[in-house]
Protein 1
Amino acid sequence: MGESPLVVCVVGSELVAGVGDPRGQGWVGRVAAQTPADPPATFLQLAVPFETSQQMSKRWAGEVERRLVDGLRHRLIFAPGTADLSTGSSMARSRLNLADMLDGAAKRHLTTMVVGPPPGRGLDNDRIAALSRAFRDVTERRGVPYIDTFTPLVAHDQWIADMATGDGHHPGQAGYGLIAWLVLHSGWYGWVGIPDPT
């Protein structure tokens, strides 16, 4: 008898839904395609456009809990965007919001990961870098994996070119592929509990 089915809930901004990707896959769809679980894994994209961390902290539990099914293996990804930077939220408040989400997930015995915000175009990347560092610190204090998408991509030629052809807020096909690569090569298979296909 095989393992019980895997369900991955991904809570985040519109990047979780792949906005701007002509293929409609985004990074979540690409990661799902490279996750050869048996039986196949289910990925649930719980995205709200331009959502702040405070808004996410208020809605995630209700959305995730109604998708928890006895007998299944569950994984939870938080993927906060950069809306905090345009709404006047302090860095301390952003940290606290993520901490509350991770602590709430821990109380529910959910295996959790955080995918940080990538660089933007026309945005203050210094502030995004600071937000990413703050989120990393919160996760490290709790032993939760953190995928830093900002540092590897801020000077990446392909990411910059992809962002330049879009609306400045969302990557295209290449950019989402880069985020997916970072997720898949940061201990993904061990985290979801399946053998690395490579």
Protein 2
Amino acid sequence: MAGPKVSRSSFVERILRDFVEQRARQKRLAQEVAAINEHADELNCEMSDALSFQAGMD
């Protein structure tokens, strides 16, 4: 899989680094989703107010 011009250790290091970075991205995404969900009702209420204000300006 690494090909003839890539050392085995370089290949393994790259695969492990990619795996760790992917796990970190997944963890950050899960934290962001949790934060959004925690404040969803408040954010939706604010958006509703903003949209009703815009609708009233037409």
Protein 3
Amino acid sequence: MSESFTYHYSAERQNEIDAIRKKYLPPAEHENKLEQLRKLDASLTTTAFIVSMAVGIASALVFGVGMCCFLVWSLWVLGALLCVVGVIGMLAAPVLYRRLVEKRRQQIAPEILRLTEELSQK
């Protein structure tokens, strides 16, 4: 009876094992804080962008309906009114974006500064 030891190493298999293992390990405190900092920074503009785009798109649609009333259906007064409302909404969308970003920036600034201070000391 011959006892022999054989070992097969596969880098691809080992990478897969390591990737699965990392999913179940607790994250390092440094990485956790850095990830939290990235999420806070990304959240700064995301909500403001979505809200301002929704206002802008809705305003463009109101403007388009106003143009249809004005040009196609000969509803002059309603068409002019809807066009004005649409233009005002489209002009307000960038202003709304800037105000929402500034408000959110003031809300998360202390947390961002705290995290950056902790990460830069390590």
